[in-house]
Design a protein that fits this description.
Elements: E1 9-13, H1 21-31, E2 35-40, H2 43-55, E3 60-63, H3 69-83, E4 86-91, H4 110-131, E5 135-145, H5 157-177, E6 183-189, H6 203-213, H7 222-233, E7 244-247, H8 260-263
Parallel strand pairs: 1-2, 1-4, 2-3, 4-5, 5-6, 6-7
Helix pairs in contact: 1-7, 4-5
The structure holds nicotinamide-adenine-dinucleotide (NAD).
């Protein structure tokens, strides 16, 4: 294979359908010669993921619910058997109960707080731990975060708290794996209409507001997140670790949005 990812093998976790951010990343990596394996959450998703895998020549598909230790062990056993070593891992997984992605954060239950943290935060560390022994020097790990980690965003609630913890874990993992020349970064993507995002109450308002306020005057695309991921996962970013890279059409730099129509 030719391209920026030629000779590199890795796992992409979190393709649910053709709108998934993980799918945008998969296409960008495959296009540059990466050898990719997919993991998907459960049998119900298999029939959606299989045709996508076939489209870009992915032949290794493993079922892996990250709340299940045995499933994570099995995923890396399969990859070890197939590849021996690997070069990248993409974690594009998040979950919280829909009922708590609306209204006031203060109403978060202990149960959903723990569930959200486990699936959306701890799982990245859990898979990094299992992948560690297999990762070649020069490897790169990537997760996905959102601006709601840093600032209040209506309805994002416990997910914002989880993303803040995820961003902190990127820094701790980058420290721990750095001596082995393994890099760890996150992309903070602008809002995109995906299955997971549709669970957040008022997503349309969020998309509209960001489109108006962002310097580029539009929302980011799945392809643009894919290209940024390609940079971070390839040797182009060999000096970059522990970072949260915004891919949000610049939305994060705006301190006060003036609506041109209202101002006129
Ligand atoms: P998506 O619904 O396509 O992907 C979410 C994935 O998480 C799905 O593949 C789902 O199967 C997986 N998942 C959930 N629980 C799981 C579990 N227990 N075990 C294994 N997998 C599980 O939506 P997406 O928007 O592509 O989300 C990918 C990542 O991007 C998430 O971390 C999300 O928070 C983040 N993100 C999304 C946006 C956005 O606006 N869409 C913005 C910034 C960050």
């Amino acid at each position: 294979a030719q391209g920026l990812m030629a000779g590199k093998k890795g796992l992409i976790m979190g393709v649910a359908n053709n709108r998934s951010i993980a799918w945008g990343i998969a296409k960008a990596l495959a296009d540059q010669g990466a050898e990719i394996a997919f993991s998907y959450q459960g049998e119900a998703l298999k029939k959606r993921v299989e045709p996508l895998a076939a489209e870009i020549g992915v032949t290794t598909l493993v079922e892996c619910d990250v709340s299940n230790d045995a499933a994570m062990d099995e995923t890396f056993r399969v990859l070890k058997e197939k590849w021996g070593t690997m070069d990248f891992l993409v974690h594009a997984i998040g979950f919280s109960n829909k009922e708590e992605l609306e209204g006031r954060y203060i109403n978060t239950s202990a149960e959903n707080f723990a569930l959200t943290m486990n699936i959306s935060v701890y799982s990245f560390t859990a898979v990094a731990k299992r992948a560690e022994a297999m990762l070649n020097p020069g490897s790169s790990l990537l997760t996905l975060t959102y601006y709601g980690a840093e600032k209040y965003v209506p309805n994002y609630n416990v997910m914002g708290v989880a993303k803040a913890a995820l961003e902190a874990s990127v820094r701790y993992l980058a420290h721990d794996l750095g001596p082995q020349n393994i890099r760890v970064n996150a992309i903070s993507a602008g809002a995109i209409k995906t299955l997971a995002a549709s669970g957040i109450s008022g997503l349309r308002t969020m998309l509209h507001f960001q489109e108006k306020a962002a310097p580029l005057k539009r929302n980011v695309t799945q392809e643009e997140v894919g290209s940024a991921a390609l940079y971070l996962l390839s040797d182009l970013a060999s000096g970059v670790t522990g970072q949260v890279q915004y891919v949000d059409c610049g939305f994060n730099i705006i301190g006060m949005h003036v609506d041109d129509e209202a101002a006129a």
